[in-house]
């Protein structure tokens, strides 16, 4: 099964470097709204069997814009595609979370209080993808930057960092063969709309 994975558009929490995770409905910026228009237009030209989206607002807005240009494409909202749960760091600064992570010996298994580790987040998304694998040839997945990167690193043995994780960046992979076609492509955006 091929997967086209797309990160949500820019939000106000992205701009402020706030940890908007599993429980946070961060609002989309003016730049983010323009990103939605451009990536929806790009994806309208591609053929998908189905679209799955995180049920959080920043992803929902993008999914609904794509659906508007592709009305016959079935859309399913799924909690399993939400961002990693940052626990007590939800709504806190990225700097505070980075300080917490810097103390870890094994960062992938580090679990913030009341949250989930990278391993747990990747496993959650992997279970969901395995559940739908036999049902589709090509699924469009609208999700979040952190969980997308963690899932790709774990499943495809990559070492992606935050620096590659553009808003509305598009990645195409084959989940069955573990082939990576491209990652975080944002060629649909002019340079002034390249945000992370």
Would you mind describing this structure in some detail?
By secondary structure, this protein is of the alpha/beta class. The chain has one domain (2-134, 146-186): Phosphoglycerate mutase-like (Rossmann fold). It is 35% helix and 16% strand. It contains six helices and six strands, in the order βααβαβααβαββ. It has helices spanning 12-16, 30-44, 57-69, 94-102, 118-132, 145-156; strands spanning 2-7, 50-53, 75-77, 138-143, 170-174, 179-185. Strands 3-2-4-1-5-6 form a six-stranded mixed beta sheet. Strand 5 (170-174) and strand 6 (179-185) form a beta hairpin. Helix 2 (30-44) crosses helix 3 and helix 5 (118-132) crosses helix 6. The longest helix has 15 residues, at 30-44. The mean pLDDT is 94.
Describe this protein with a few key phrases.
Rossmann fold; 6 helices; 196 residues; alpha/beta; six-stranded mixed β-sheet
Poorly predicted runs are none
Biggest sheet: strand arrangement: 3-2-4-1-5-6
What characterizes the major β-sheet? 6 strands, mixed
Instruction: Sum up the overall morphology in one term.
Output: globular
Looking at the overall shape, the CATH architecture is: 3-Layer(aba) Sandwich
Question: Percent of residues in beta strands?
Answer: 15-25%
- Helix-strand category: alpha/beta
Query: What's the name of the CATH homologous superfamily?
Result: Phosphoglycerate mutase-like
Distance between the termini: 28 Å
Count of structural domains:
1
CATH fold name, please?
Rossmann fold
Q: Percentage of helical residues?
A: 25-40%
Number of helices, counting only DSSP H or I runs of 4 residues or more: 6
Overall pLDDT level = 94
């Amino acid at each position: 099964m091929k997967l086209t994975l797309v990160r949500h558009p820019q939000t106000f929490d992205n701009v402020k470097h706030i940890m908007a995770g599993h429980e946070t409905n961060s609002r989309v910026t003016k730049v983010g709204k323009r990103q939605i228009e451009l990536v929806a237009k790009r994806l309208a030209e591609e053929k998908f069997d189905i679209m799955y989206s995180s049920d959080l607002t920043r992803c929902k807005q993008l999914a609904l814009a794509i659906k508007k240009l592709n009305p016959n494409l079935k859309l399913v909202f799924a909690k399993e595609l939400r961002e990693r749960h940052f626990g007590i760091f939800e709504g806190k600064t990225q700097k505070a979370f980075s300080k917490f992570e810097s103390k870890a010996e094994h960062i992938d298994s580090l679990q913030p209080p009341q949250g989930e580790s990278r391993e747990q987040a990747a496993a959650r998304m992997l279970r969901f993808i395995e559940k739908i694998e036999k049902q589709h040839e090509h699924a469009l997945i609208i999700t979040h930057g952190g969980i997308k990167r963690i899932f790709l690193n774990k499943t495809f043995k990559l070492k992606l960092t935050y620096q590659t994780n553009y808003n509305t960046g598009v990645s195409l992979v084959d989940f069955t063969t573990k082939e990576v076609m491209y990652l975080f492509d944002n060629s649909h955006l002019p340079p002034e709309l390249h945000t992370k």
